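Now read this:
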Amino acid sequence: MRVAFGGFMFDSGMRELLAGGQPVHLSPKAFDVLKMLLERRPNVVDKQEIYKAIWPDTFVGDAALNVVVAEIRRVLDDDPRTPTYIRTVHRVGYAFSFEPVVDMAGPAPPNRPATSHRSWLAINERTFPLTEGENIVGRDPQCTVWLDESGVSRRHARIVVTGGSATLEDLDSKNGTFIRSRRVDEPRELVDGDLIRFGSTTARFRMWSEGQPPETVRLDRKRGRQPTK
């Protein structure tokens, strides 16, 4: 979903909210709640439905949701007393009430060079292909990258692949997501060869491009190994 409203542009595929053309930060849960409200506009989204979608394995009360909605309103500069974007339906839920919302989705620009890209995660001796768009990493068997490890949260992180680029985002995991030994606290762009740690599980991100294939290592023909220096 890619929509424009007021001075904002919301792109769910890129996991990005722009204000006046500049990216603004939203926590993963705030981003997902805003996405739900935009998808269901102008209808009211029930609180219980939001809880099940955003906190699927955790019991939370109104206080947690209030914090997330307050974050969205702060970013949108939306006064809850006279709301422009987020309308509160007391004891029921929330609705996105701003109009117009312009759908910016459309076909790719013409004359764009067609380049084939493939990306995957390599973990020990296993390979997890990543698809175009959103890829969830976590302990839930429904995740794109299923890691059955106790230190990995059910929905631990998200990798969004778009053409020849990929971004990594932590989903408020308990043990954190790290790239290049630094904790991920906002979406980070990935490059081929990056080491990622999901809790205690380490993965290597790989991306293959038809235009720039990875370098082939020359092996020692006699021993089938890399020659020693």
